[in-house]
Amino acid sequence: MQILITGAAGFVGQLLAKELLNDPAYQVTLTDIVQPPVPKGAFHPQNATCIKADLLKAAQDVISPSLDAVYAFHGIMSSGSEANFELGMSVNIDATRNLLEALRKTCPGVRVIYSSSQAVYGQPLPDIVTDSVIPTPESSYGAEKIVCETLINDYTRRKFITGFTLRFPTISVRPGAPTAAASSFLSGMIREPLNGTECLIPIEDRSFKSWLCSPKTLVQNLLLTLQLPGDSVPPHIRQINVPGICVTVQEMMDALKTVGGQDKLKLLSEKEDPAVVPILRSWPTRFDNSQAISLGFKRDESFEQTVRDYKASLEQS
């Protein structure tokens, strides 16, 4: 099976690529604006092809007529899109449209799994967001994601592609360096203390809730989407809210203390960031994931287990 991953140098792209490359059944093309690496430790690195490419200029160059599926992970994150409107619009919308156009001309009907976000929603929101709640984003990033979701819907309705849009929860705990996402601290407040460094929490409210999913569970759900029947959702409504769990800042701190020890809390500080807080407070905190669960998607058991998994990964590296 031949798979293309865009934005493949990023965390999610590398995570998924490693899982695919552990199975000899997959040939994986990784592409990004920078040269994407083959994930370390993959069992079958010879099955990877890495291409440095700009989807704004050369989307056609990364596409083969024999492609079976595409994971579209490229993009500028939330705070980055808010800080640079032109860059967010070009990378998040124009590059995606270029990719979809190249796909419909070269391999019509190909499966496309597009990564969207809970940032498509904005206030006011009900206590629990259902699939019937209309997205009203309060950030450029969320607005850009809605535009691309609409493209995925229409290209699928017209049978140009077989698209699925996955609205990700915030992924925590992400390894590596902080990102330009407003939610970056939701990994940093665990990752940095466990690595012996400080983390600034940009909101002074320990009751603040976030909708989170672990990397391990996300990958399971990404692989599941590769096998979903094309008609499992309507042809013009392709978005699926990926399951998550609701966790407060205090509960995250408690998990850090339980898994890492009391001393790790000393590496956390809290200070309101007026540019970030409005973005954070615009996002929903609870979802009804009945549709996703009925399709076979999984959710995490607890955030404490997520922290334990991350700590175990540090000990193994």
UniProtKB/TrEMBL annotation:
It comes from Penicillium ucsense. InterPro entries: Epimerase_deHydtase, NAD(P)-bd_dom_sf. Residues 3-201 form the NAD-dependent epimerase/dehydratase domain. The keyword NADP applies. This is UDPglucose 4-epimerase. Keywords: Carbohydrate metabolism, NADP.
